[in-house]
Amino acid sequence: AVDESHAIAAATAMAASSRGDGSPSSRSGHHKRGNGGDGGNGRGFEPLFDLNGHSGAVYAVRFSPTGRLLASGSFDHTTRLWSRGGEPVATLRGHSHSVTDLCFSADSAAVLSGSFDHTARLWDVGRSQCVSCFDVGGALVLSVACRGDLCWAATSSGALLQYDRRRRGEQPCLSVQNESLLQAVASASDEEVLTGDRNGLLKAWDVRTGRCSRQQRVDDSGGPARPISHLEVSPEAWRGHDGARQRLLAANSYDDTVRILAVPAAGGAAEGGGEGGGGDGG
After folding, report:
1. Pairing outcome for strands 159-164 and 174-177
2. Pairing of strands 245-253, 228-233
3. Which spans in 177-275 are helix H?
4. CA dihedral 217, 221, 223, 226 (to 10 degrees)
5. Computed from CA positions of residues 196, 110, 166, 169, in that sequence, does the dihedral angle turn out positive or negative?
6. Which of 68, 90, 96, 167 is the most buried (most CB within 10 A)?
7. Cα–Cα nearest to 160, from 170, 172, 149, 168
8. Which residue(s) pair with 230 in the sheet?
9. In terms of C-beta density within 10 A (0-12 exposed, 13-18 middle, 19 or more buried), how is residue 224 classed?
10. Residue 159: CB partners within 8 Å, gap ≥ 6?
11. Span 79-138, pLDDT tens digits
């Protein structure tokens, strides 16, 4: 069993310590920043503006595939949408606890949010409304992903829940149980969804049968297992040395290393992009 109160307390403490004095912003919108950082050599970062409006630590950010919107999820229980120019577009309210992860649909028309309130919510971006609320059964939602009409929620109980937007009702159309807490989920193809867990195992699951088709430990050092904290799949696929189409997968781990792996791009996985997933960030 997972001690959810301990997980929430740890995440809240981390957010408070990184926020300085803990005081919320008094304004909503963007605040332009001055030049700084590189001393004029052109090789540093150029600060543009700050996005103010959340009243709690920001735990997740995602750009839409079109690049026109940025979504931010916060410990203040909201998801905010911003234009790429920094203007506030909408505030999505509905979660009753911290928002932990976000994922846009490929057409940027919808965004999926996961929360410590034991739900994942699907939002219509144009209407700024929640169109589906997926209850994961009492576990914390640590990571979310979507592809086409399918949505996934990876949870603290080790359950990976799959939802189909085409079906009436908000019950999962597929549920699989992992041996340990799932910290990351990402969609790599039309046939498979990938997960990273607390034991450092990367697994591929068949979206039709729920069967684990393959797995491997990402850290092959032989030492203690390190959790996988995040997964990110490259949007484009290409032919590798063996002629097979593949994508790149980046896997974060608690051993201070990001590992890049090749993932076969079967069937519809060879084209398109913008959908994927993420992780719990810790």
Report:
1. antiparallel
2. antiparallel
3. none
4. -50
5. positive
6. 90
7. 172
8. 252, 279
9. exposed
10. 136, 137, 139, 175, 176, 177, 178, 182
11. 999 999 999 999 999 999 999 999 999 999 999 999 999 999 999 999 999 999 999 999
